[in-house]
Design goal:
Layout: H1 31-56, E1 60-67, H2 73-80, E2 89-93, H3 99-102, H4 108-111, E3 120-124, H5 133-136, H6 142-161, E4 164-172, H7 175-187, H8 197-204, H9 206-219, E5 227-231, H10 235-252
Parallel strand pairs: 1-3, 1-4, 2-3, 4-5
Bound molecules: adenosine monophosphate (AMP) and magnesium ion.
The site of adenosine monophosphate (AMP) has 9 residues, from helix 5.
Length: 270
């Protein structure tokens, strides 16, 4: 995809989400069908690259997915990673912290779930929840959540310097689109289980969450761990952009097919 960079937040950039249209499909000039075909090709390429990553056991890849309720985090995991070999791919989901987790620093539960060499790990929510919920709901003093931006940058720097490629995606939907998706959840017997009344409380705090997202996007997009703001009102476009970013990043790693562990010349299988 051309001009993918328009969705990347540069280090130090001050993010104003009202200038990032959630319904944007500008990178898909040939329309939806062509985009879906392209996404399928990307998915096949991802399968190959992931197999090599797993075989080579050298690089680790961390994919962070953040976004409001119904923004499509589960959908991305299902669609973009469809068919990749589960041997080398894991999903880690983060819920409200348990008592034990709260008794530790906020990165404790996160660090133990990062990818090892050869692995891709997808974070469905992440350590970024700790500069969202506690801030918006005033669960901890301001100086505590403010210090976390720097702590997160240091943590991600450590991961990057020790062989982890970090890709962070903010799935950006509009408030209207969320209304439709929540209503759909409520109405569809197969999706109803996902609906929680608490989601409406968060929805009522939409503007506060938007501000908290703008702050974290502005403060934690770094060279070693950039944020991508993904227009996510159109699911097909969301998947195309994320697939493109992932494949481009993995191609850059220049992963080699490993050599056999011993000299196999002349070996014949009878
Ligand atoms: P879901 O991803 O829809 O299953 O919901 C998980 C819930 O856990 C969401 O409401 C998150 O905001 C909440 N959550 C995840 N991490 C944290 C955190 N560190 N602090 C507070 N709430 C969190
Ligand atoms: Mg939810």
């Amino acid at each position: 995809m051309k001009k993918l960079k328009r969705y990347r937040i540069e280090p130090g950039e001050k993010v104003d989400l009202s200038r990032h249209p959630p319904g944007d499909t500008a990178g898909a000039k040939d329309g939806r069908e062509a985009a879906e075909e392209k996404a399928l090709e990307l998915n096949e390429r991802l399968e190959v690259l992931q197999e090599r990553l797993w075989a080579e056991q050298k690089h680790a890849v961390l994919v962070v997915l953040q976004g409001m309720d119904t923004s499509g985090k589960d959908g991305v995991i299902r669609k973009v990673f469809e068919g990749v070999n589960p041997l080398g791919v894991r999903v880690a989901a983060f819920k409200a912290p348990t008592e034990e987790e709260l008794a530790h620093d906020f990165l404790w539960r996160v660090h133990s779930r990062v990818p090892g060499r050869g692995e891709i790990v997808i974070f469905n929510r992440s350590h970024y929840e700790d500069v969202l919920v506690p801030r918006v709901r005033q669960l901890v003093p301001e100086k505590v959540w403010k210090a976390r931006y720097g702590q997160i940058n240091d943590f991600e720097k450590l991961l990057a310097e020790t062989g982890t490629t970090i890709l962070k995606f903010f799935l950006h939907i509009s408030k209207d689109e969320q209304k439709e998706r929540l209503q759909e959840r409520l109405d569809d017997p197969e999706k109803r289980w996902k609906f929680r009344k608490g989601d409406l409380d968060d929805r009522a705090l939409w503007d506060d969450y938007t501000k908290a997202y703008e702050a974290l996007l502005s403060r934690t997009s770094t060279r070693h761990a950039p944020w991508w703001v993904i227009p996510a009102d159109k699911k097909w476009y969301r998947d195309l952009v994320i697939g493109s970013v992932l494949v481009e990043a993995l191609e850059k790693l220049d992963i080699r097919r490993p050599e056999p562990r011993e000299d196999l010349t002349g070996v014949v299988v009878e």
